[in-house]
Automatic annotation (TrEMBL):
<protein>
    <submittedName>
        <fullName>LacI family transcriptional regulator</fullName>
    </submittedName>
</protein>
<keyword id="KW-0804">Transcription</keyword>
<dbReference type="InterPro" id="IPR000843">
    <property type="entry name" value="HTH_LacI"/>
</dbReference>
<keyword id="KW-0805">Transcription regulation</keyword>
<keyword id="KW-0238">DNA-binding</keyword>
<dbReference type="InterPro" id="IPR028082">
    <property type="entry name" value="Peripla_BP_I"/>
</dbReference>
<feature type="domain" description="HTH lacI-type">
    <location>
        <begin position="9"/>
        <end position="65"/>
    </location>
</feature>
<dbReference type="Pfam" id="PF13377">
    <property type="entry name" value="Peripla_BP_3"/>
</dbReference>
<dbReference type="Pfam" id="PF00356">
    <property type="entry name" value="LacI"/>
</dbReference>
<feature type="region of interest" description="Disordered">
    <location>
        <begin position="293"/>
        <end position="312"/>
    </location>
</feature>
<dbReference type="InterPro" id="IPR010982">
    <property type="entry name" value="Lambda_DNA-bd_dom_sf"/>
</dbReference>
<dbReference type="GO" id="GO:0003700">
    <property type="term" value="F:DNA-binding transcription factor activity"/>
</dbReference>
<dbReference type="InterPro" id="IPR046335">
    <property type="entry name" value="LacI/GalR-like_sensor"/>
</dbReference>
<dbReference type="GO" id="GO:0000976">
    <property type="term" value="F:transcription cis-regulatory region binding"/>
</dbReference>
């Protein structure tokens, strides 16, 4: 039978089945110390719980532990995509291995998990990616060592290795918070400076081919020496590729394009999109261990990988 609210066994059901009080059921199943409960009663409670398929609720366990076996994650308006999805998957899998659950809040910029939610769940930990990537703790996720800054550096380094000296940074106009966009641009400028490139040119490509075409045409007229585009993500790169095809600008001979995030659709375009792949699942697993106060281990996420295809 499906585990629905109507059919799920409750602690009171177990109490009735085993002829004890709900408090006794809680003491037995939570193995609460200092209780004088006979072995026969304990066995009767456990057998009743097994027959009914009762599973203690995470919040109920909070009564004993002082915090629920739940971790709250706020994505704080960060753009959706393969990396974020993989991060959440790794985080959830690792938490599950420690018998914890994950609750995700997909907030907008400036938003955070509502205090009432925090009070209701009494989480073991709260991970706020808005703080991690744009607040005072930006760098907790690895920074220039193996975090976002390092991934952006790898994107521009790939282009620099192929002789590109002036690069445009293609940005979306929606779906990304201003703070996160600013952080990405700051990383790109610092990477360009480190690589000895000219300051990158920012171009907002919009959300469709016509807007992108107008923006790219204007950018190329103002900056004719730009020979490559490093996109904010693969979706932005595909919009740029579509516009360049409409403008009959050859990629990569006239201008190269590299994406970021290794979305599966990039391989389906022509020319196939060169992009940056991030081992985000490993970052999620590491974040889970840190959130639970455990040793993050010596295993590091795989280095940033360039998926080399035809566009750059």
């Amino acid at each position: 039978m499906a585990d629905t609210p109507a059919s799920r066994a409750t602690l009171r059901d177990v109490a009735r089945e085993s002829h004890v009080s709900p408090a006794t059921v809680s003491f037995v199943l939570n193995e609460t110390p200092g209780q004088s409960i006979s072995p026969e009663t304990s066995q009767r409670v456990r057998e009743a719980a097994r027959r009914l398929g009762y599973r203690p609720h995470h919040i109920a366990r909070a009564l004993r532990e002082g915090a629920s076996r739940t971790v709250l994650l706020s994505t704080a308006g960060l753009p959706s995509g393969r990396s974020l999805d993989s991060f959440i998957s790794g985080l959830e899998d690792e938490l599950r291995s420690y018998d914890h659950a994950l609750l995700v809040a997909h907030g907008r910029e400036g938003g955070s998990i509502h205090p009432e939610v925090i009070d209701a769940f009494a989480p073991r930990a709260i991970l706020d990616l808005g703080v991690v990537y744009t607040g005072d703790d930006a760098g907790w996720e690895g920074g220039w060592i193996d975090g976002l800054a390092a991934h952006v550096f790898a994107q521009l380094h790939y282009l620099a290795d192929r002789g590109h000296r002036e690069i445009a940074i293609a940005m979306p106009t929606t779906g990304v918070t201003a703070r996160f966009a600013s952080l990405r641009l700051d990383h790109a400028r610092e990477a360009a400076r480190t690589l000895g490139l000219r300051p990158p040119v920012e171009v907002d490509v919009g959300d469709d081919r016509d807007d992108a075409g107008a923006a790219l045409t204007a950018m190329r007229m103002r900056h004719p020496s730009v020979s490559a585009i490093a996109a904010f993500d693969d979706n932005t790169a595909l919009i740029a590729l579509s516009a360049l095809a409409e403008l009959r600008v050859d990629v990569p001979s006239e201008i190269a394009v590299i994406g970021f995030d290794d979305d599966r659709y990039g391989a389906l375009w022509h020319p196939c999109l060169t992009t940056v792949h991030i081992d985000a699942e490993a970052y999620g697993r590491r974040a889970a261990r840190v959130a639970l106060g455990r040793d993050p281990g010596t295993t590091q996420p795989a280095p940033t990988q360039i998926i080399r295809r035809d566009s750059a």
